[in-house]
Each structure stands twice: as structure tokens, then as C-alpha cells.
């Protein structure tokens, strides 16, 4: 067993999978989650609270829903953090909030990295996530051993906030492609098209995207790829993107579509289900359309 250890706060859908990868790589994980028993389920040593994690680890990873959760957690753990420790926020968070937390951490001799992750639950399970990081490059290099069990690609994007900025840009494109493809699939079904054949056409044509290649070939067979990002969190990510562009002074001309689509899904009761269920929400208002092939 390696003597190396890390702290991990937030052991949910993504955090739990990453923790299990770290544990299986021989790294001791000191974990905390608000849900009792979450640490033990993924092989971590349970901590009493975030401050307890910070007091026991030189590297602390966070995987939390958003900045509204990240901020109080970081401010609670900073007084207990070891001098020279590194906090790595793997959440999808507001870059402006991230920069503020980076400044607060630096004032206490703690390094703070924002490290957006992409690839979803499947990549977390396999250890093939893509990480886009912001903050000190040397600090990032020093903890490369932490990322080895969980990520296939690690990109240093620039100063504090750059990682979370890149993550929001990526997630917006993900939301656009998923919402648009869901609409197209419902339309294709109502038009009487063979959807697997339509996907073959799209995937060899200019309409190809991540959703046509990696989501809908499963969805039309009845597999929604459960366990990934929920519709509610997708809406949150698009809202963060809109806020980011407002701060940058860039017009937000294409956010209305995914906000409407995932907002519809939430209003129809799909908010806590995987975001792929947006296709069912659109199908509901199109007359109860489902895109699954008969027999699935």
C-alpha cells in the first residue's frame, strides 16, 4: 500500500467514482460527504467534516455541485489546512468565485487549483477523464500522481479561473448538442424515419456531434446511460455560462435553446434524472413521442 494520501470532499456521482479509482491505485483517501456511509462505500477513510479532511491531507480534492456549495466548504476547511497544502476544485463552478477562493487560500499559504473535468460517469469509472486546470503550473505538476488514476488528459489552461472557464465553455457546447439532437430525434420519429439509420446519416454528415455519436445510439435502444449529469445540473451549467459571458462582455445568442429545453425537462419532472431525458420532455410536448425502437 502506498503511503500517499489525499482528501476528497463530495463523494457523489463523480466524486465517488474518482475516489474508488484512487483507492484502487493504492492511495489512501480521507473522504467526507454529507451522506452517511458514502466514504466507506468507495473505500475511503471517513472524516468528520471538511476541516477534518484538510487537517489530515496535503492534497484535498473537491467534487461539489456548484460555487454556492464550494464557497462555504472551502472557507470552513481553510483554517484547518496544512501550510503548503493544495486544494483542487473539480466542480463546475463560477470562475469569478474561484479566483476569490484562490486569493483567500493564498493568504493562508494554501495553493488552490481549479480543475474542471469532462467525460462523465463512464470516464470517471475508467479513469479516462479530461482535466482542464487553472492556477499555478508547478503546483499542478507536483500532484500529477493524483491525476494519474483518474484522468487520461490534463491540460493547464492558465491562471486561476481558467480551468473552470474552459469547463463552462465545453459544457455549453455539450448542452447545445444534446438539446438540439434530442429535438431532431423527436422530429425524426414523428416524420416516420428510421432513427438508427438517421444517426448513421448524421454521423457521416455535417450534423455530427457528441450526442449523435455517443448518446443517441444508446438512447434509441432504450439505454439512457443513467448515472451522468442531471438535467438540473445541466441547466445550472448553462446559467453559469451565461453569467461568464456577461462578465466577459460577449453576447449570449445561443443559450436560449438549451435553457428552454432543460428548463422544460425540469418543469416536467425530469430535473433529477440524467440530462439525456430531455428527449422525453420534448417528446412529451410533441404528443407523447418516444425515440426508442419498438421492443426496447
- Please state how the strands of the largest beta sheet are arranged side by side: 3-2-1-4-5-6-7-8
Strand content: 5-15%
H/I helix tally: 14
- Mean pLDDT across residues: 96
Major sheet: size, sense and barrel closure? 8 strands, mixed
Tally of extended strands?
A: 8
Distance between the termini: 45 Å
User: Measured on Cα atoms, how large is the radius of gyration?
Assistant: 20 Å
**Secondary-structure element string:** EHEHEHEHEHEHEHHEHHHHHH
- The backbone outline, from C-alpha atoms, is globular
Catalogue the unreliable spans.
Answer: none
Helix and strand content put the structural class at alpha/beta
Which percent range fits the helix content?
40-55%
Can you put this structure into words, describing what you see?
With about 300 residues, the protein is an alpha/beta fold. It contains 14 helices and eight strands. The chain has an eight-stranded mixed sheet, with helices on both faces. The longest helix has 29 residues.
Blueprint of the fold:
Layout: E1 5-9, H1 15-24, E2 28-32, H2 38-41, E3 45-46, H3 50-56, E4 59-62, H4 67-77, E5 86-89, H5 95-106, E6 111-118, H6 120-126, E7 129-134, H7 137-142, H8 144-147, E8 151-158, H9 162-190, H10 195-203, H11 210-219, H12 231-248, H13 256-267, H14 278-285
Parallel strand pairs: 1-2, 1-4, 2-3, 4-5, 5-6, 7-8
Antiparallel strand pairs: 6-7
Helix pairs in contact: 1-6, 3-4, 4-5, 9-11, 9-12, 9-13, 9-14, 10-11, 12-13, 13-14
Amino acid at each position: 500500500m502506498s503511503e500517499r494520501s489525499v482528501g476528497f470532499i463530495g463523494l457523489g456521482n463523480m466524486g465517488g467514482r474518482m475516489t474508488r479509482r484512487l483507492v484502487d491505485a493504492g492511495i489512501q483517501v480521507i473522504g467526507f460527504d454529507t451522506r452517511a456511509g458514502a466514504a466507506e462505500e468507495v473505500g475511503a477513510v471517513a472524516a468528520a467534516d471538511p476541516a477534518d479532511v484538510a487537517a489530515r491531507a496535503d492534497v484535498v480534492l473537491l467534487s461539489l455541485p456548484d460555487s454556492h456549495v464550494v464557497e462555504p466548504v472551502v472557507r470552513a476547511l481553510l483554517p484547518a489546512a496544512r501550510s503548503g497544502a493544495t486544494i483542487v476544485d473539480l466542480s463546475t463552478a463560477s470562475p469569478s468565485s474561484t479566483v476569490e477562493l484562490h486569493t483567500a487560500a493564498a493568504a493562508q499559504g494554501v495553493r488552490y487549483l481549479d480543475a474542471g473535468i469532462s467525460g462523465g460517469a463512464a470516464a470517471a469509472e475508467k479513469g479516462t477523464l479530461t482535466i482542464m486546470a487553472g492556477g499555478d503550473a508547478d503546483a499542478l505538476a507536483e500532484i500529477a500522481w493524483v491525476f494519474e488514476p483518474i484522468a487520461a488528459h490534463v491540460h493547464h489552461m492558465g491562471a486561476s479561473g481558467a480551468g473552470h472557464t474552459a469547463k463552462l465553455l465545453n459544457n455549453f457546447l455539450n448542452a447545445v448538442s444534446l438539446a438540439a439532437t434530442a429535438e431532431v430525434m423527436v422530429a425524426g420519429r414523428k416524420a416516420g424515419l428510421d432513427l438508427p439509420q438517421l444517426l448513421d446519416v448524421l454521423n457521416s454528415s455535417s450534423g455530427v456531434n457528441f450526442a449523435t455519436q455517443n448518446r443517441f445510439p444508446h438512447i434509441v435502444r432504450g439505454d439512457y446511460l443513467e448515472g451522468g449529469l442531471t438535467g438540473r445540473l445541466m441547466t445550472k451549467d448553462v446559467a453559469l455560462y451565461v453569467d461568464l459571458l456577461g462578465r466577459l462582455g460577449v453576447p449570449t445568442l445561443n443559450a436560449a435553446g438549451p435553457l428552454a429545453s432543460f428548463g422544460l425537462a425540469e418543469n416536467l419532472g425530469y430535473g433529477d434524472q440524467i440530462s439525456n431525458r430531455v428527449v422525453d420532455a420534448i417528446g412529451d410536448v410533441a404528443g407523447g413521442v418516444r425515440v426508442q425502437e419498438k421492443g426496447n
